[in-house]
Amino acid sequence: MVKLRFLIVSYFLLISFTSLAGRVVFKGDIPDYAGHKLEFLTYSDQITFTERLLCSAIVDSTGKFDCSFETDETIYVFAHLGVYEAFIFVEPDKEYILLFPEKKDKSTADRLNPYFEPELYHLGVENSSDNELNYLLAWFNHEYTKMFEANAYLIYIKSSAFNALTEINKVDSIFKNIDNPFFNDYKTYTFAAFLHISNHQKSRSISDSYYLKNKVLYNNKAYMQLFNQVYDKFFGYFGRTENGEKIYSDIGKLKSITALKNTLGSDEILKNDTLKELVILKCLHDEFYDDKISRSAMLIVLDSLALQTKIAEHKIIAENIRKKVTRLMVGFEPPYFELLDKDSNMVSLQKYRGKYVYLGFCVSLSYACIQEFEMLRKLYERQHQNFEIVIISMDDNLAQMKNFIEKKDYPFTFLYYGNQSEVFKEFDIRAVPTYYFIDKEGKLALSPAATPGENIEYYIFNVMRKNGDI
């Protein structure tokens, strides 16, 4: 009877959950993209900006495609389309016939540039209407940008003739009858950002007015953009107060999430427990890149928060932070990849488990890489019995890489990045060549590693000696 009751309850919970989620359908007719694989993504969270795949589709020979996914709320969706980050805001239970920009691929220089910023492109919706969310947001952003640009100089010189509220009211009057909740929240936090940037309200005032007593809007882009501005470097700001000095010992010495929450809670600005946790998550994420606090201590605090929190979104953010900050740390596994070799075989790091791997990132047309390939040839001849050499190459296409390798007859492994182009970003490649050394357990031992011309054998042998392998 108990088992039956459990099954009935589980069934109704499942029905309730699935009824909350609505299917979103994307369709389009884009002949320029025929044969192209489209991937529609969203951000798993807007602190780490971890990308999450929603659906994908291959554009057929006539230019048609469709794909679908489920969501229980309005979310920001985007696709990497060459030089563009094409985006759209989608609502549950809706079909969108999408209008794309003219196809424009990245140049080799763009692909190699770690600081490349895509051009934002708001996708058109063929089956739109005057009250459709994307139409409203595009219209609002146009009016807001026009107002901002008209007042930018007055804001810059802090003119007494400028009145932020008057300018906001002018734009707001155009949209006062819109009853879409997502749109109105977006508008509210965009205006709040304007008050912040124009110095009409300081960070503490913005926090009190817009965050302390309000619901957290994890998927509203305007809410989270302002959140990231208002609470930027909050540990540093709070740490200068009398009570705030404790936060560094709470993390670095005590390694206690409870102590940290108690210290932060002594200020009225973070009396809201949900907001407090979110601010802690943001600050832990940011502090990993400042090297002011022990990273191992921060990981312990982060893991404790993930275990204690009752908020599902915060567990996800904590997990994303951990993955992001440890992905290139010594002692942790590097980002996963599965790439094509010159013979079109799929090769992953898993293949090399049980072996040491000297992993490099290069471009066959780069003079610096070509020079080091010759050094790698000699290194391979001397040491191939001790470790593998694997090069991930960013060439224009697989055939170009294959022709280069066969012409030069290199004995070590080359992999083509093309089917997983984000691999360069995931390994934080800011210049080529760049190297890492991976141990037999598949964990980073040198991150980054020295180049072949920087006596890499000395460092590799130190690792192998420490592990008892020589």
Using the CA coordinates, give the radius of gyration: 26 Å
> How many H/I helices?
17
Number of strands: 16
Strand order of the largest sheet: 11-10-14-13-12-15-16
Annotated CATH topology of the largest domain: Glutaredoxin
Largest sheet, if any? 7 strands, mixed
Q: Going by CATH, what is the homologous superfamily of the largest domain?
A: Glutaredoxin
**Total number of domains:** 4
Write the layout of secondary structure elements.
Blueprint: H1 2-20, E1 22-29, E2 37-43, E3 51-58, E4 64-71, E5 75-81, E6 84-90, E7 95-99, H2 108-112, E8 119-122, E9 124-125, H3 133-156, H4 164-172, H5 181-197, H6 203-210, H7 221-230, H8 234-239, H9 246-252, H10 257-264, H11 273-287, H12 295-308, H13 312-326, E10 338-341, E11 346-348, E12 356-362, H14 367-383, E13 387-393, H15 398-408, E14 413-416, H16 423-426, E15 434-438, E16 444-449, H17 456-466
Parallel strand pairs: 1-7, 6-8, 12-13, 13-14
Antiparallel strand pairs: 1-4, 2-3, 5-6, 7-9, 10-11, 10-14, 12-15, 15-16
Helix pairs in contact: 3-5, 4-5, 5-7, 9-10, 11-13, 12-13
How does this structure look, described?
The longest helix has 24 residues. Helix 5 packs parallel to helix 7, helix 11 runs parallel beside helix 13 and helix 12 packs antiparallel against helix 13. It is built from 17 helices and 16 strands. The strands form four sheets. The chain has a seven-stranded mixed beta sheet with strand order 11-10-14-13-12-15-16, with helices on one face. It is 43% helix and 20% strand. The termini are far apart. With 470 residues, the chain is of the alpha/beta class. The N terminus is likely disordered. The chain has four domains: 109 residues, Sandwich (Immunoglobulin-like); 96 residues, no CATH class; 93 residues; 129 residues, 3-Layer(aba) Sandwich (Glutaredoxin).
